[in-house]
Amino acid sequence: MKTTRPGGATSGLMLAIATVIVITANSAWAAPQDVPSRGFVWKDGAEVYAKVCGYCHDAQIGPQIRGRSLPAAYIRTIVRNGHRAMPAFRSSEIDDESLIKLAEYISKN
Ligand code: HEC
């Protein structure tokens, strides 16, 4: 007689579903207003630029900000406070460490 392991197939399926959710949540393009889940860490400045800033600044919605040697402190101030049509980003969206890396990246690229 065949015995079924308790929860065997079911927990495997649940794990598969959970994995899909995690992958989707991490790779899906998040609109700038979306708040990344707690504990979310950006890989580097280039990633933040590509996924957040480039949405406007590479689409001529915002002015060109790379290649202008803008001071990093100026970039950080604008990101935290906003600037006319430019929305502000909180530390829950772009953490302080990522913002430092981001400002450095934009300033030098
Ligand atoms: C929703 C669109 C949008 C997003 C997303 C966005 N910006 Fe902007 N940004 C703008 C607009 C529009 C302006 C011009 C504001 C004005 O002068 O009215 C601007 C202006 C700026 C300026 C000033 C540029 C100058 O010429 O002095 C900086 C610096 C800047 N943004 C940095 C960033 C960074 C860094 C990010 C990513 C964290 C970002 N922005 C994301 C729309 C955006």
TrEMBL record:
Keyword Signal: yes
Residues in Cytochrome c domain copies: 42-106
Pfam family, one: Cytochrome_CBB3
Entry keyword annotation includes NAD: no
Keywords: Heme, Iron, Metal-binding, Signal
InterPro entries: Cyt_c-like_dom, Cyt_c-like_dom_sf
Annotated signal sequence range: 1-30
Recorded superkingdom: Bacteria
Name recorded for this polypeptide: Cytochrome C oxidase, cbb3-type, subunit III
